[in-house]
C-alpha cells in the first residue's frame, strides 16, 4: 500500500486551503498537485519534513492548470529536470507557455492571482498528456487518469485503483472540515461537471483526496458534492430565467446553503479566495448566457 501525505501549500502564513499530495511507493514518489508559485518554499519544507527533497520526486500530476493547483510546476521542473509532468492534453500547451493562463487568471482572480504568483514555463520534453482511462503502474498501486470536465475543460481526476483513493482536484468542489460547495468559475459547464461526478462515483472510491482540503473516508462526500452541484445548478437556472442578477442569486445561495455560509466566513478569515462563491455564481450565469446565445 502506498503512503499518502498532504503537504499544506496555502500561500504565505495561511493554512488549511491547498494540498499538494505526496504519494510514496516503495520505489517511486510523485506529487499530485503542486500548489501556487508563491508556495514553492512551503512545498520543499513539507517534503523535507517527510524525509525527502525535490530530487526524490519522479513525476508530478496536476488535475488541471489553474494557479492554485499547478502554478509552481515550471519552477519545480527547473530545479529537477528529470521530473515528468502529467497534464490533460488541453492544458499541456498552457504549462509550456503560460502567458494566456496568467492573463486569464489575473482577469478572473484579481489580487488573488498576484498572491499565487506568475507561473513559469515547463519545457515540452517534460510534459506528457495521458489519455482518458490510461493507467500507469507505481509498484504497489496503479494510477488511472479519469477525464472529469466541468470545472474546466482540461480537468482530470486521479484514481489509485488498489488503494481506492481518488484525487478530485476541483471536480468535486471544495471541502473544508466537511463543508462542501461547488467550484464553478467561468468558463464552467455544470452538465459536464455533474456527469463527471457520476463517473467518479461509479468508480466506488474508498477515500476522497480534495485539493481543497484533505483526505476523507467514504463515497458519501462525492454523493454530497453531486447533490450540491444539482442544487446550485437548478436554483441558479431558475433565478437566471426569472431575470435575477448575479449578486441577488449569490445572496440567495447563502440563504439556502449553510455550507456556503461557513465557507464564506472561512474565506473572509483566510483573506484568500475572496468572492469565490460570487465568482462561482457568475460562472453559472455565464453558462446560461452561453446556452441562450447558442
What does this structure look like?
This protein has helices spanning 40-49, 67-70, 73-79, 89-96, 99-109, 111-116, 190-201, 220-242, 246-256, 258-270, 276-293, and strands at 3-8, 19-24, 29-32, 59-61, 84-86, 127-128, 135-138, 141-147, 156-160, 165-169, 174-176, 179-181, 207-210, 214-217. The protein is α/β, with parallel strands linked by helices and 294 residues long. The chain has 2 domains: 3-224, Ribonuclease Z/Hydroxyacylglutathione hydrolase-like (Metallo-beta-lactamase, Chain A, 4-Layer Sandwich), CATH 3.60.15; 227-293, no CATH class. The longest helix is centred in the last third of the chain and has 23 residues, at 220-242. 42% of the residues lie in helices and 20% in strands.
What distinguishing features does this structure have?
294 residues, Metallo-beta-lactamase, Chain A, six-stranded mixed beta sheet, 11 helices
Identify the CATH class of the largest domain. Alpha Beta
Instruction: Determine the N-to-C terminus distance.
Output: 49 Å
CATH superfamily of the largest domain: Ribonuclease Z/Hydroxyacylglutathione hydrolase-like
DSSP helix fraction: 40-55%
Task: Please name the CATH architecture of the largest domain.
Answer: 4-Layer Sandwich
Helix/strand structural class: alpha/beta
Low-confidence stretches: none
CATH topology of the largest domain: Metallo-beta-lactamase, Chain A
**Overall tally of domains:** 2
Report the β-strand fraction as a percent range: 15-25%
Element order: H for helix, E for strand: EEEHEHHEHHHEEEEEEEHEEHHHH
Q: Care to count the β-strands? A: 14
Number of helices: 11
Q: What profile does the largest beta sheet have?
A: 6 strands, mixed
Our Rg estimate from Cα atoms comes to: 18 Å
Strand neighbour order, sheet with most strands: 1-2-3-4-5-6
Envelope shape: globular
Mean pLDDT value: 94
